[in-house]
Amino acid sequence: MFDFKSITLGDSRYNFHSHTQFCDGRATMAEFAEAVSNAGFRHWGFSPHSPVPIDSPCNMAEYDVPIYLAEVCRLNSLYESSDIEFYTSMEIDYLGEHWGPANDYFQQLPLDYRIGSVHFIPSPDTGEPVDIDGRYESFLRKMHDYFHDDIHYVVNTFFDQSLAMVRAGGFDLIGHFDKIGHNASHFCPGIEDEPFYRRRLLELTDAIIASGVTVEINTKALAEHGRLFPSSSVWPILLKAGVPVVVNSDAHYTHLVNASRPEALAMLEKTAAEISTPTL
Length: 280
Prior knowledge:
Layout (H helix, E strand, L loop, with lengths): L3 H5 L5 E2 L13 H10 L4 E4 L18 H14 L6 E4 L2 E3 L10 H5 L6 E3 L2 E3 L6 E3 L4 H12 L3 H18 L4 E2 L5 H8 L7 H17 L2 E5 L3 H4 L9 H6 L4 E4 L12 H16 L4
Parallel strand pairs: 1-2, 2-3, 4-5, 5-8, 8-9, 9-10
Antiparallel strand pairs: 6-7
Helix pairs in contact: 6-7, 6-8
């Protein structure tokens, strides 16, 4: 396991989740390197959306993988005299037992660490993986076209896929593990307060704790949507269990390399203080 804890202990100048020209990012790795260096970061992880065996405009092509790995090496050499370290990673999509972080292909790549994430779930009719992670307008269309507007199927299947990924292992950091709540709440307001949703969220949280992986607090949606992933409601559970937690911006644009991280870091510090303070 990659030792996130020793890197981040006492130092918030890190980010382990970002996207560039190799997937759906909006700037080159070199442009990101300049931006994060100017912003004072000490540790920066590049994590393109992994290759997948289906058509996906958001995922990197397998033939780009060697070019990507070489570019991280080049940037580390270029910034050798600075105080910043660049890391090779991928945000690896779990599609099922035959494709995910534990797949031999990803295990054999010379990555510093691996992020495991769920963006796709299977259609109930065809088993075709469908991306349910995009903007709500796209999600709404897919709910009708692929899922018969059955939001409970979508939520339960997201958590089923996430649990299967955690049990299969092969990754160091789990990405935005309750992100389905965002689109699901637009489709069905109040769904996150339903007992079944809370039960599934806590089931996944317990599995993550047992797995020993690090959890990210993803800040990408805080400014626009007022959301952090995972929800702050599970932070005390994670912290009490001793789970390593990092705060990532999931940046796709260079001007957002540190977006909402200070706010999330302050919230995390406050939560840690509250759970360590004895109550009468």
